[in-house]
Design goal:
alpha+beta; 3 helices; 183 residues; 17% helix; 10 strands; Jelly Rolls
Length: 183
Protein backbone atom coordinates (compact mmCIF):
# COMPACT_ATOMS: atom_id res chain seq x y z
CA UNK A 1 0.00 0.00 0.00
CA UNK A 2 2.84 2.37 0.88
CA UNK A 3 4.47 1.53 -2.45
CA UNK A 4 1.30 2.46 -4.34
CA UNK A 5 1.03 5.83 -2.55
CA UNK A 6 4.72 6.47 -3.15
CA UNK A 7 4.38 5.70 -6.92
CA UNK A 8 1.36 8.06 -7.17
CA UNK A 9 3.20 10.87 -5.45
CA UNK A 10 6.29 10.29 -7.57
CA UNK A 11 4.18 10.19 -10.78
CA UNK A 12 2.40 13.41 -9.80
CA UNK A 13 5.72 15.15 -9.09
CA UNK A 14 7.13 14.10 -12.46
CA UNK A 15 4.00 15.31 -14.24
CA UNK A 16 4.15 18.66 -12.42
CA UNK A 17 7.87 18.96 -13.22
CA UNK A 18 7.26 18.48 -16.97
CA UNK A 19 4.40 20.96 -16.88
CA UNK A 20 6.76 23.73 -15.80
CA UNK A 21 9.54 23.04 -18.37
CA UNK A 22 11.19 25.95 -20.15
CA UNK A 23 9.99 26.98 -23.57
CA UNK A 24 10.26 30.05 -25.70
CA UNK A 25 7.99 31.55 -28.27
CA UNK A 26 8.61 30.09 -31.69
CA UNK A 27 9.10 32.42 -34.65
CA UNK A 28 7.89 30.58 -37.75
CA UNK A 29 8.60 33.68 -39.87
CA UNK A 30 12.29 32.71 -39.76
CA UNK A 31 11.51 30.23 -42.55
CA UNK A 32 10.93 33.23 -44.84
CA UNK A 33 14.59 34.24 -44.36
CA UNK A 34 15.90 30.82 -45.44
CA UNK A 35 18.41 31.05 -48.29
CA UNK A 36 19.86 27.89 -49.84
CA UNK A 37 22.87 28.05 -52.15
CA UNK A 38 23.44 24.56 -53.57
CA UNK A 39 26.10 23.83 -56.17
CA UNK A 40 25.25 21.13 -58.72
CA UNK A 41 27.80 19.48 -61.01
CA UNK A 42 26.58 17.49 -64.02
CA UNK A 43 27.87 16.12 -67.32
CA UNK A 44 27.12 18.36 -70.27
CA UNK A 45 28.36 16.59 -73.41
CA UNK A 46 30.72 13.81 -74.42
CA UNK A 47 31.92 12.48 -77.73
CA UNK A 48 34.67 10.23 -79.04
CA UNK A 49 35.13 10.52 -82.81
CA UNK A 50 37.66 8.10 -84.34
CA UNK A 51 39.78 9.40 -87.24
CA UNK A 52 38.21 6.97 -89.72
CA UNK A 53 34.77 8.54 -89.13
CA UNK A 54 36.02 11.66 -90.90
CA UNK A 55 36.19 9.58 -94.11
CA UNK A 56 33.04 8.62 -96.06
CA UNK A 57 33.39 6.54 -99.22
CA UNK A 58 37.09 7.47 -99.38
CA UNK A 59 36.40 11.23 -99.13
CA UNK A 60 37.36 13.34 -96.12
CA UNK A 61 34.52 15.09 -94.34
CA UNK A 62 35.99 18.38 -93.14
CA UNK A 63 32.96 19.45 -91.08
CA UNK A 64 30.98 17.44 -88.55
CA UNK A 65 27.93 18.95 -86.84
CA UNK A 66 25.84 17.74 -83.91
CA UNK A 67 23.13 19.82 -82.24
CA UNK A 68 21.81 18.25 -79.03
CA UNK A 69 18.91 19.80 -77.12
CA UNK A 70 19.93 21.33 -73.77
CA UNK A 71 16.84 23.25 -72.75
CA UNK A 72 17.30 22.58 -69.02
CA UNK A 73 18.53 26.14 -68.42
CA UNK A 74 15.31 27.74 -69.67
CA UNK A 75 13.21 25.70 -67.25
CA UNK A 76 11.27 27.90 -64.78
CA UNK A 77 13.26 26.54 -61.80
CA UNK A 78 16.60 27.47 -63.37
CA UNK A 79 15.36 30.79 -64.72
CA UNK A 80 14.39 31.80 -61.18
CA UNK A 81 17.25 30.28 -59.18
CA UNK A 82 20.37 29.98 -61.36
CA UNK A 83 22.96 32.56 -60.27
CA UNK A 84 25.95 31.36 -62.31
CA UNK A 85 27.02 28.43 -64.47
CA UNK A 86 30.57 27.31 -65.28
CA UNK A 87 31.00 25.14 -68.36
CA UNK A 88 34.22 23.10 -68.37
CA UNK A 89 35.51 21.55 -71.60
CA UNK A 90 38.38 19.11 -72.10
CA UNK A 91 39.38 18.00 -75.60
CA UNK A 92 42.00 15.34 -76.31
CA UNK A 93 43.18 15.01 -79.93
CA UNK A 94 45.21 11.95 -80.96
CA UNK A 95 44.76 12.50 -84.73
CA UNK A 96 47.65 14.01 -86.73
CA UNK A 97 45.36 16.82 -87.97
CA UNK A 98 44.44 20.12 -86.33
CA UNK A 99 40.79 20.98 -85.73
CA UNK A 100 38.60 23.82 -84.54
CA UNK A 101 35.50 23.23 -82.48
CA UNK A 102 32.82 25.90 -82.58
CA UNK A 103 29.99 25.91 -80.05
CA UNK A 104 26.95 27.92 -81.04
CA UNK A 105 24.28 28.39 -78.38
CA UNK A 106 20.86 28.56 -80.08
CA UNK A 107 17.45 29.79 -78.88
CA UNK A 108 14.11 28.09 -79.55
CA UNK A 109 14.02 29.66 -83.06
CA UNK A 110 17.53 28.34 -83.84
CA UNK A 111 18.92 31.88 -83.69
CA UNK A 112 22.52 32.12 -82.36
CA UNK A 113 22.79 33.66 -78.90
CA UNK A 114 26.41 33.02 -77.99
CA UNK A 115 29.50 31.59 -79.67
CA UNK A 116 32.76 30.11 -78.41
CA UNK A 117 35.50 28.17 -80.15
CA UNK A 118 38.50 25.98 -79.46
CA UNK A 119 41.68 25.60 -81.49
CA UNK A 120 42.77 21.97 -81.27
CA UNK A 121 46.36 21.38 -82.44
CA UNK A 122 47.37 18.27 -84.39
CA UNK A 123 48.68 15.30 -82.43
CA UNK A 124 52.48 15.11 -82.45
CA UNK A 125 53.10 12.13 -80.18
CA UNK A 126 52.80 13.99 -76.86
CA UNK A 127 49.72 14.60 -74.74
CA UNK A 128 47.50 17.03 -76.61
CA UNK A 129 44.88 18.27 -74.15
CA UNK A 130 42.90 21.49 -74.64
CA UNK A 131 40.87 22.76 -71.67
CA UNK A 132 38.64 25.78 -71.24
CA UNK A 133 36.15 27.06 -68.67
CA UNK A 134 33.38 29.34 -69.86
CA UNK A 135 31.66 31.25 -67.03
CA UNK A 136 28.06 32.40 -67.51
CA UNK A 137 27.06 35.23 -65.17
CA UNK A 138 25.04 38.46 -65.39
CA UNK A 139 24.02 39.30 -69.00
CA UNK A 140 25.80 36.23 -70.34
CA UNK A 141 23.73 34.10 -67.94
CA UNK A 142 20.54 35.54 -69.46
CA UNK A 143 21.70 34.25 -72.86
CA UNK A 144 22.25 30.79 -71.38
CA UNK A 145 18.76 30.78 -69.87
CA UNK A 146 17.35 31.33 -73.38
CA UNK A 147 19.47 28.53 -74.90
CA UNK A 148 17.64 25.39 -76.07
CA UNK A 149 20.38 23.78 -78.21
CA UNK A 150 24.13 23.87 -78.54
CA UNK A 151 25.57 23.21 -81.99
CA UNK A 152 28.95 21.44 -81.91
CA UNK A 153 30.72 22.17 -85.22
CA UNK A 154 33.99 20.29 -85.61
CA UNK A 155 36.13 21.54 -88.55
CA UNK A 156 39.21 19.73 -89.79
CA UNK A 157 42.19 21.86 -90.82
CA UNK A 158 44.41 21.04 -93.83
CA UNK A 159 47.01 18.35 -93.22
CA UNK A 160 47.90 14.73 -93.95
CA UNK A 161 45.16 12.80 -95.74
CA UNK A 162 42.91 10.65 -93.53
CA UNK A 163 41.77 7.20 -94.66
CA UNK A 164 39.52 4.49 -93.30
CA UNK A 165 42.66 3.03 -91.65
CA UNK A 166 43.73 6.27 -89.91
CA UNK A 167 44.25 6.02 -86.17
CA UNK A 168 43.49 8.34 -83.30
CA UNK A 169 40.39 10.16 -82.17
CA UNK A 170 39.05 13.37 -80.77
CA UNK A 171 37.48 13.04 -77.33
CA UNK A 172 35.44 15.83 -75.76
CA UNK A 173 34.38 15.74 -72.13
CA UNK A 174 32.41 18.58 -70.64
CA UNK A 175 30.57 19.38 -67.46
CA UNK A 176 28.55 22.20 -65.97
CA UNK A 177 28.73 23.52 -62.43
CA UNK A 178 25.49 25.33 -61.61
CA UNK A 179 25.39 27.75 -58.70
CA UNK A 180 21.83 28.15 -57.44
CA UNK A 181 20.30 30.62 -54.98
CA UNK A 182 16.96 29.45 -53.61
CA UNK A 183 14.99 31.83 -51.39
Amino acid sequence: MKLLVFNRILGTLILVLFSFSCSSNLDFNQANDLKLEPVVVANLAYFDVPANQFVTNGVEQTVTIDTPTVDVFNDAFFKNNLARADFFFEINNTINRAYTLDLVYLDKNNQPLYFTNFVIPAYTGVKNLVTKTDVFANAKLDLLKRTTKIAFILKMSPGPLLTKNSTGSIILRSSVTAYLVIQ
